Amino acid sequence: IDAAKDMMLADLVLHWNFCPRMTTCCPFHASMIELKRSLRRLEAQDCSKTFGQDFVKEVVWQCAACGVCALPDRLYVAERPTRCPACCGEWRAVSHVMAL
User: Fold this and answer.
1) Could you give the percent of the chain with pLDDT greater than 90?
2) In what order do the strands lie in the sheet with 69-70?
3) Looking at the predicted structure, is the pLDDT value of residue 99 above 70?
4) How many CA atoms lie within 13 A of 95 on its CB side?
5) Angstrom distance (rounded) from CA 98 to CA 64
6) Rounded to whole angstroms, how far apart are CA atoms 96 and 72?
7) β-pair type (69-70, 60-63)
8) pLDDT of 60-88, one tens digit each?
9) What is the CB neighbour count within 10 angstroms for residue 45?
């Protein structure tokens, strides 16, 4: 599961346009610094008791191997996706994404 999360975060920062700091050793670590800056801003926000509840009401697909979720109308269409994009594992239907 951790490897899938890492891969998804690394893929996420590829979609960002930012100026790397001059002291970074490489584009990868410059991206990780930018990701940490975003996470710090998000962590500083007020608590959200309703975070993720929109997805709890929907049936979603979750990879049985790595735990990645495919949300209807987000990553895939409502029908069952073919294979997990993170590990090529099999999908299973679950009634919620996270325990809230």
Assistant:
1) 27
2) 69-70, 60-63, 91-94
3) no
4) 1
5) 15
6) 12
7) antiparallel
8) 778 888 888 776 655 444 566 678 878 88
9) 7
